[in-house]
């Protein structure tokens, strides 16, 4: 019987815990229920003595009032803290709480205010750092590609846009392969923290590097591409220029003295065979002088004198110049004009020298039945031939100073072409394509 009564007595508390109401309401209901029981018990015990009964009822009411006041004093700061927590959830770190006059709660409020101030300061620092990083990426002289977690393009800075010939926003959230640049294959093979120096088309040199930064607890990869072509070529030219000048100085001094001796000897010698030998020696000295002068011309190449010229006319003249030589070797030289008139600011003499070297090399690479096609299009100039292809292992050395794959070559022709075209700020390449045609293109 007692167990049944106790169970009945606890049943309201169980129902109170199961109800989906706030903790504050539960607490108030609990206070009301508890004080109601006390008042009921005091009525049963003290009903015979009215004075004690009235005093006990007054005390119970005072207890209830004090409990409610204490609850309100505790509930108000917690409501403020809840409001602050909601502000933090909304990322608003400007809300601070005022002390309520209670030591314990004031300590809690002070801790909250310190925490919110620290969060606000850290958020401000992160915002400033992010803004600085964005500005740094945009202004960087190095091409930067930021990737997402799926290795797709997330951000491309202006330098990278210039390098890949794209506009802002193009190819975002797409894989690297859509850029369609020869350097992409090397970029895709890089590992985090790895750095390489690579050469494209035997001319353009790049330093590529892959790294990562932490973004919201995750590692986000990015790629840096620095073009070293101009610096390397300037250093290279300075080095071989010094060697050529030294060689030319020594050879010219020796040739002058030897020629003087040969001229005197020719006047004194009457024996025909000896006289012929002196003439051969003198002629060889002249050829050596011309040989050194060709090397020196590369170093002393003047800045281009730019004038508006018709590329149609320039190319037609060059084709006419070499057509006889090509026909003699059984090679068909074809001239294709895909545009009626195309003008460009060029130094005609220097560009003609480039075309002479390229056409000469093409004829030397071809045999009977081969073709050389000269094309002028909106994109630029292409000189193609289906003769001997460029060996793959030598492709990266084509524009290297003094390199030649010909037995009697001096490695000057393509070096001179490189200097002239770079001084004109033209893009160019020389490679054997997948269809077997070797193409020299100028854009």
TrEMBL record:
<keyword id="KW-0597">Phosphoprotein</keyword>
<dbReference type="InterPro" id="IPR003660">
    <property type="entry name" value="HAMP_dom"/>
</dbReference>
<keyword id="KW-0418">Kinase</keyword>
<dbReference type="InterPro" id="IPR003594">
    <property type="entry name" value="HATPase_dom"/>
</dbReference>
<feature type="transmembrane region" description="Helical">
    <location>
        <begin position="27"/>
        <end position="46"/>
    </location>
</feature>
<dbReference type="InterPro" id="IPR050398">
    <property type="entry name" value="HssS/ArlS-like"/>
</dbReference>
<dbReference type="InterPro" id="IPR036890">
    <property type="entry name" value="HATPase_C_sf"/>
</dbReference>
<keyword id="KW-0547">Nucleotide-binding</keyword>
<dbReference type="Pfam" id="PF13188">
    <property type="entry name" value="PAS_8"/>
</dbReference>
<feature type="domain" description="Histidine kinase">
    <location>
        <begin position="246"/>
        <end position="443"/>
    </location>
</feature>
<protein>
    <recommendedName>
        <fullName>histidine kinase</fullName>
        <ecNumber>2.7.13.3</ecNumber>
    </recommendedName>
</protein>
<keyword id="KW-1003">Cell membrane</keyword>
<feature type="domain" description="PAS">
    <location>
        <begin position="129"/>
        <end position="182"/>
    </location>
</feature>
<dbReference type="GO" id="GO:0005524">
    <property type="term" value="F:ATP binding"/>
</dbReference>
<keyword id="KW-0902">Two-component regulatory system</keyword>
<keyword id="KW-0067">ATP-binding</keyword>
<keyword id="KW-0812">Transmembrane</keyword>
<keyword id="KW-1133">Transmembrane helix</keyword>
<dbReference type="InterPro" id="IPR000014">
    <property type="entry name" value="PAS"/>
</dbReference>
<dbReference type="Pfam" id="PF00672">
    <property type="entry name" value="HAMP"/>
</dbReference>
<feature type="transmembrane region" description="Helical">
    <location>
        <begin position="52"/>
        <end position="74"/>
    </location>
</feature>
<keyword id="KW-0472">Membrane</keyword>
<keyword id="KW-0808">Transferase</keyword>
<dbReference type="Pfam" id="PF02518">
    <property type="entry name" value="HATPase_c"/>
</dbReference>
<dbReference type="InterPro" id="IPR005467">
    <property type="entry name" value="His_kinase_dom"/>
</dbReference>
<feature type="domain" description="HAMP">
    <location>
        <begin position="72"/>
        <end position="124"/>
    </location>
</feature>
<dbReference type="InterPro" id="IPR035965">
    <property type="entry name" value="PAS-like_dom_sf"/>
</dbReference>
């Amino acid at each position: 019987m007692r167990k049944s009564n106790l169970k009945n007595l606890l049943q309201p508390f169980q129902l109170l815990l199961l109800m989906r109401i706030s903790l504050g309401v539960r607490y108030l209901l609990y206070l009301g229920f508890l004080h109601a029981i006390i008042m009921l018990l005091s009525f049963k015990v003290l009903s015979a003595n009215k004075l004690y009964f009235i005093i006990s009822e007054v005390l119970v009411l005072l207890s209830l009032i004090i409990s409610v006041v204490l609850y309100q004093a505790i509930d108000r700061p917690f409501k403020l803290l809840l409001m602050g927590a909601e502000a933090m959830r909304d990322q608003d770190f400007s809300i601070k709480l005022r002390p309520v006059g209670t030591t314990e709660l004031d300590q809690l409020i002070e801790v909250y205010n310190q925490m919110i101030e620290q969060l606000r300061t850290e958020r401000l620092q992160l915002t400033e750092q992010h803004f600085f990083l964005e500005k740094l990426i945009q202004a960087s002289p190095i091409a930067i590609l930021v990737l997402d977690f799926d290795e797709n393009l997330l951000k491309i800075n202006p330098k990278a846009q210039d390098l890949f010939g794209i506009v802002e926003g193009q190819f975002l959230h797409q894989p690297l392969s859509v850029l369609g640049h020869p350097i992409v294959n090397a970029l895709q093979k890089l590992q985090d923290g790895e750095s390489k120096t690579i050469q494209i088309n035997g001319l353009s040199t790049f330093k590529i590097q892959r790294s990562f930064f932490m973004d919201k607890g995750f590692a986000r990869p990015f790629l840096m591409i620095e073009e070293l072509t101009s610096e390397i070529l300037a250093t290279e030219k300075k080095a071989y220029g010094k060697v050529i000048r030294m060689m030319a100085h020594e050879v010219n001094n020796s040739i002058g003295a030897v020629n003087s001796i040969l001229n005197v000897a020719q006047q004194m010698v009457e024996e025909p065979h000896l006289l012929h030998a002196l003439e051969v020696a003198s002629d060889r000295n002249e050829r050596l002088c011309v040989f050194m002068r060709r090397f020196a011309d590369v170093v002393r190449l003047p800045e281009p004198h730019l004038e508006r010229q018709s590329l149609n006319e320039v190319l037609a003249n060059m084709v006419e110049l070499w057509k006889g030589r090509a026909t003699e070797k059984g090679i068909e030289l074809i001239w294709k004009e895909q545009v009626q008139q195309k003008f460009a600011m060029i130094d005609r003499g220097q560009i003609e020298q480039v075309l002479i070297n390229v056409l000469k090399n093409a004829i030397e690479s071809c045999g009977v039945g081969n073709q050389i096609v000269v094309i002028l299009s909106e994109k630029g100039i292409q000189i193609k031939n289906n003769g001997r292809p460029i060996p793959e292992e030598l492709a990266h050395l084509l524009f290297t100073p003094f390199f030649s794959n010909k037995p009697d070559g001096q490695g000057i022709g393509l070096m001179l072409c490189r200097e002239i075209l770079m001084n004109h700020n033209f893009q160019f390449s020389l490679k054997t394509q997948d269809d077997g045609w070797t193409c020299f293109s100028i854009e």
